[in-house]
Specification:
The protein contains 11 helices and 9 strands. By secondary structure, it is α/β, with parallel strands linked by helices. The chain has a single domain, classed as TIM Barrel, CATH 3.20.20.370. Strands 1, 2, 3, 7, 8 and 9 form a 6-stranded parallel sheet that branches. Helix 1 links the parallel strand 1 and strand 2. Helix 9 packs parallel to helix 10. The radius of gyration is 19 Å and the shape is globular. The protein starts with a strand and ends with a helix.
Length: about 325
């Protein structure tokens, strides 16, 4: 590559990503902030000329519960841990008033669609867990096909995929390829990212600590040995704003340092987060993002560092390979 690239991907889930971890009835402000923050982030991306991939859970394409019911795939994931099934969860809240704002977001998808240089990718249809016991490759295939269908109904062709909860499964890449997915996000090479299915206290501690301290930069080169779909490694999770000023300063300093290294060495730096990560301290999170993107502008001026979404990186890679 003639220059380095900042890649940004966002895992857009709303409640589908965390329904088994939180009580939605206690998170109204959190999700209201999340819905407000997405258009703000898009305006910032436009102002800073940022290209990004929004990996959207396919269920968010539905307009309401009736449409959701009509779009239930014929084959559902048979998780051994039943509480992981969004279909079981949905049946428990489908009659509750006011729940649609937590689980559907066609209006927000339209805004993303209209914003320049934003790619809409997929986070699977049901926030599908590709390493959990009970599900299989055919379950995954039917799930992904449903996402592709609903996206096409909005004139969106899905080309990039992010595995929910970073449960990267190489065995499912053939399904992705056959259904037109050309890029997937994979995990960093660090040992504490190897098994995201069964997180231990030790791996969580090391991942958290790595956000603030550590000797190794997270940027990388692509190699010509990549196959289709290409694997785009995540570099850094942009963690939510911390009220601890020391930790928050260290987090931003680490990202800026890694970005500078990537720009100077013409490498890829892939930053990712969930929009709902900005649900608490929304103003502070927006300010943190602006600080990071101000640094991107400096890197762009000094090193010709560029912004690209996952599909654009895939195009660049294919041109280099040829």
């Amino acid at each position: 590559m003639n220059n380095g690239h900042l890649v940004i991907s966002l895992d857009m889930e709303l409640l589908w990503g965390i329904f088994d971890k939180v009580d939605y009835r206690e998170r109204e402000t959190y999700f209201r902030n999340t819905r407000r923050i997405i258009p703000q982030v898009l305006r910032i991306f436009r102002d800073y000329d940022i290209h990004a991939t929004w990996a959207v859970v396919g269920m968010l394409f539905n307009k309401n519960w009736k449409e959701w019911e009509n779009n239930i795939p014929e084959r559902l994931p048979k998780y051994t841990e039943k509480q992981l099934s969004p279909y079981i969860f949905a049946n428990s809240i489908i009659e509750a008033p006011g729940t649609e704002k937590y689980v559907f977001a066609r209006d927000l998808i339209h805004i993303i669609q209209k914003t320049p240089f934003q790619e809409i990718g997929t986070h699977t249809y049901s926030h599908f867990y590709c390493l959990e016991p009970g599900q299989d490759v055919e379950d995954f295939k039917q799930d992904l096909k449903k996402s592709i269908l609903l996206a096409r109904n909005m004139n969106i062709n899905l080309r990039s995929l992010v595995f929910p909860r970073n449960q990267f499964n190489e065995k499912y890449l053939e399904v992705c390829r056959n259904l037109g997915i050309e890029s997937v996000r994979s995990n960093p090479e660090d040992w504490y990212w190897k098994n995201t299915q069964t997180d231990s206290l030790v791996t969580k501690v090391f991942r958290t600590g790595d956000a603030y301290f550590g000797p190794r930069n997270k940027s990388y080169f692509y190699t010509k040995e990549q196959n289709n779909p290409i694997s785009q490694k995540a570099s850094r999770l942009l963690r939510p704003h911390s009220p601890n000023k020391i930790l928050n300063t260290l987090k931003i300093k680490r990202i800026k340092s890694e970005m500078t290294y990537a720009a100077r060495n013409k490498q890829i730096y892939h930053l990712w987060w969930h929009p709902h990560n900005f649900g608490n301290y929304p103003a502070e999170n927006i300010n943190d993002l602006k600080i990071i993107l101000d640094h991107f502008k400096l890197c762009k001026m000094k090193y010709n560092f560029q912004s690209a979404n996952m599909n654009e990186i895939n195009t660049i890679f294919k041109e280099q390979k040829d």
